[in-house]
Amino acid sequence: MAEPESTKNPQQIIDYQVFFRNFSGELTPITPLVSAMNIYESIFTLTTSCDIVIADAVGFTQRVPLVGDEHLIISYRSNNSHFIKNRIFTYTMNNVV
User: Rounded to an integer, what distance in angstroms lies between the CA atom of residue 64 and that of residue 18?
Assistant: First the structure.
């Protein structure tokens, strides 16, 4: 019997949620806006970083001011793990089109 496609890659994320927490602590779910996400974990230091592409057709960056004190809260699950939750500090925003 052939193995299902979803179990062949143990690093594949099968379920995720992304929230944006602003400087005043308000949580905004942005999972539907995320079109691509790369998470990098260092083997040399205790850091995690990520790149997120947000398809913003509703003016999210105009409605929610980015002042450099925001967090992204990302929870995800791969085929071989339970939910993993990361809180990532924002420090830059590039390629705003």
Answer: 15
Q: What gap in Å lies between CA 48 and CA 39, rounded to an integer?
A: 7
Query: DSSP state, 43?
Result: S
> Which residues neighbour 38 within 8 Å (Cβ) at sequence distance 6 or greater?
50, 51, 52
pLDDT confidence of 92, banded at 50, 70, 90? Answer: low
**What pTM, to 2 d.p., does this model score?**
0.71
Indicate the residue type of 75: S
Instruction: Please report, in angstroms and rounded to a whole number, the separation of the first and last CA atoms in the chain.
Output: 47
Count of helices and strands (H, E) across the chain: 1, 6
pLDDT value at position 8? 61
The neighbouring-strand residues paired with 88 are 72
Q: Please say whether the beta carbons of 52 and 37 come within 8 A.
A: yes
